[in-house]
Amino acid sequence: MSATLATPAAPSYFRRDMASYRVLVSDPISDKGVEALASHPEIEVDVNTGLAPEDFLKIIPDYDALVVRSQTKVTAEVFAAAKKLRAVGRAGVGVDNIDRQAATDHGVIVMNTPTGNTISTAEHAFTLMLSAARNIGPAHTAVLAGDFKAARKAFQGIELNGKRLAVIGMGRIGSEFAKRAQAFNMQVVAYDPFLTQARADELKVELAESPDIALSGADVVTLHVPMTEETKHLLNSERLALMNPGALVVNCARGGLIDEADLKAAIDSGHIAGCALDVFEEEPPPSDHPLFALAKHIAFTPHLGASTNEAQENVGIQVAEQIRDFLATGEIRNAINMPSLDASALAEVAPYLELGAALGRLLAKLGPENPDSLRISYHGPLAKKDTALVARTALTALLETARPDGQVNIVNVPTVAKDMGIDLVESTINAKTEYNELLVAELRRGDIRFRAAGTIIGRSPRIVEIDRLYVDTNINGHFLIVRNDDRPGIVGALGTLLGNANQNIANLSLARNKSQGNALTIIEVDAPLSGDIMESVRGIPGVLSATGVTL
Ligand SMILES: NC(=O)c1ccc[n+]([C@@H]2O[C@H](COP(=O)([O-])OP(=O)(O)OC[C@H]3O[C@@H](n4cnc5c(N)ncnc54)[C@H](O)[C@@H]3O)[C@@H](O)[C@H]2O)c1
Ligand SMILES: O=C(O)[C@H](O)COP(=O)(O)O
Predict the structure, then answer these.
(1) 133-178: per-residue pLDDT in tens?
(2) 431-434 long-range contacts, Cβ below 8 Å, gap at least 24?
(3) Contacts of residue 119, Cβ cutoff 8 Å, sequence gap at least 6
(4) Reported ipTM
(5) Strand pairing partners for 247?
(6) How far is the C-alpha of 101 from the C-alpha of 377, rounded, in Å?
(7) 544 contacts: CB under 8 Å, gap ≥ 6
(8) Where is the ACT domain (predicted)?
(9) 313 among known catalytic residues
């Protein structure tokens, strides 16, 4: 399963220079997903599910990417051990089993597949609501046990027609649940901090301004929010008390959203009729879980919301394609810890990513030490393009000089820069420049400022300005950058010195600062310049400063 990567479409800056990638799939995903990964000639896939945490820790250092569902716990300890890891793909929605901060700190991108299991999960949640309302589970068990007659008396159901349904979390799954409930003639009220009145109108649901308002007088509540510190135990005894007597609770999102002890107490008190749960605070739940003692209006499933062939094929293939494309081309889709950049946006801004990296490396050599900010401005039509990663790329290249060996990358660079006290400031400027589009990078320490700029000519990035002097140079190669008095003979002396040192000159760019009587000379050479050559350059009369830079 390994060979050489096809011609990369992405900027080299996003890829590591390596022959192949190893991907570990540590939770079961569909065969088609595994095939989509393994079909890439450069990707070697190992499917190794159900690993004990200590075994997982032992093998994770060998992998460049990891694919999980909800079982594998990708903790800070895992990220610390996973020195080669660049990406974690979640075949599903919830990422609460992945330590997002640790991933970001270690420069690992985390992606999920947000849409692949929406319908299956909404259908499952809806099925759970119907089951609890009509006692399907307990009645089924009673029939099998020969208690047909008794069960007909015991299992009086709840009709949903006309009942008030509170949907907490009106995202993808919540919205699909609401549509199905409307087909059952339920009155839907929704709470979601990101739900606009226009969207609520479009979905024909009542918009509640708070969870309490949504729950007040509700006959059923269904939860569809992510599990976070803020949403933990969002359904507790106070909120359950707001619901109508005889109400039902449905949860197909995450167990921790409900205080299970409060729920049990509310059911025991008779205020809440029952519950339908696909997820539990602890998974698997203990077999003597207090809620399992209930006899009526209950429906429990073992986290099956996304477990259909259709959903698993969707998320398995999606995650495989996302990881494959990220490793092979740098394309970023559905990332949760950095901006995404799809294939067409990536193709459009790829030359600017290369240019941003070159400007970052240049400023690291020529700009002030101990900078407090890097300012990136986008001029002309570039200002309207998807530049989200250009500034990150420039900042990464700048900081890489201080933190080599892959310690900083486009994922963790905001955190690293913050720790170093460096602000990244971006701006867009519509005013015309000499160039159609211009990318300007300026490094500052207090009042000291140093800037460089570049543009794209054809498809080639060029540096066109250094320290406000116009130049024209390539962005890759070895350069001698000299500040010198603006008088005859200096360029000749530089050429002679380099010739004597057997250094071939590939290109030369000159810029004169007439008002100050000095000039900037940029000479591209075939090989890096040694310390001795640099000393000799600095010794040429009229040379004010000289720096050797490899971009
Ligand atoms: N049981 C399963 O197998 C299964 C399957 C898929 C998803 N899930 C869970 O369902 C959750 C929802 O999935 P989705 O695809 O609809 O996600 P989504 O991102 O489309 O929707 C989540 C919504 O919750 C809202 N929200 C966030 N905090 C909130 C709060 N405090 N109160 C109210 N709303 C809040 C968001 O604004 C968003 O609209 C996931 O986070 C996942 O944990 C479970
Ligand atoms: O968040 C999700 O996508 C669901 O909880 C599905 O989890 P699973 O992939 O472990 O079934």
Answers:
(1) 999 999 999 999 999 999 999 999 999 999 999 999 999 999 999 9
(2) 431/379, 432/380, 433/379, 433/380, 434/464, 434/470
(3) 176, 310, 311
(4) 0.99
(5) 272
(6) 28
(7) 482, 483, 484, 485, 518
(8) 479-551
(9) no
pTM over the 0.95 mark: no
- What does the mean pLDDT of the chain come to? 93
Around Cβ 356, how many Cβ atoms within 10 Å? Answer: 30
**303 annotated active-site:** yes
Q: According to CATH, what is the number of the domain 477-551?
A: 3.30.70.260
Query: Residue 252: nearest ligand to its CA?
Result: 1
Catalytic residue among 159, 282, 283, 434: 283
| Confidence grade of residue 515 (pLDDT, cut at 50, 70, 90) | confident
Bridge partners of 229, per DSSP, are none
As given in the structure block, the two tokens for residue 88 are: 């974690």
Helices (H), 160-253: 172-183, 197-203, 211-215, 237-242
Tell me, in angstroms, the distance from the centre of ligand 1 to residue 223's CA: 8
**Architecture, CATH, for domain 17-116+310-329:** 3-Layer(aba) Sandwich (3.40)
Asked if 462 and 472 touch (Cβ cutoff 8 Å), the reply is: yes
- pLDDT at res. 9: 37
- By C-alpha distance, which of 33, 14, 55, 125 is closest to 397? 14
For residues 44 and 384, is the Cβ–Cβ distance under 8 A? Answer: no
Give per-residue pLDDT as tens, 279-324.
Answer: 999 999 999 999 999 999 999 999 999 999 999 999 999 999 999 9
pLDDT for the residue 19: 56
- The residue ranges of every structural domain in the chain are 1-8+342-475, 17-116+310-329, 118-300, 477-551
The matching CATH number, chosen from 3.40.50.300, 2.40.100.10, 3.30.1330.90, 3.40.1550.10, for 1-8+342-475 is 3.30.1330.90
The reply to whether 477-551 shares the fold of 17-116+310-329 is no
Altogether, the residues listed in the chain come to a count of 551
* Percent of the chain whose predicted confidence (pLDDT) is above 90: 88
pLDDT tens, residue by residue, 424-440: 999 999 877 889 999 99
The span from the CA of 302 to the CA of 32, in Å, is 24
Nearest residue (CA) to ligand 2, atom 10: 70
Residue 262 CA to chain centroid, in angstroms?
35
Q: Is 7 exposed, middle or buried (0-12, 13-18, 19+ CB in 10 A)?
A: exposed
Mutate to test the pocket of ligand 1, among 27, 96, 224 (most ligand atoms within 8 A of CB): 224
Task: Using alpha carbons, select from 120, 38, 177 the residue that is nearest to residue 312.
Answer: 120
Residue 388's pLDDT is: 87
Tell me: pLDDT of 396 over 80. yes
Rounded Cα distance, 183 and 299, in Å: 22
pLDDT confidence bin for 6, thresholds 50/70/90: very low
Domain 118-300, CATH: 3.40.50.720
- Closest to 451 (Cα-Cα) out of 376, 380, 521: 376
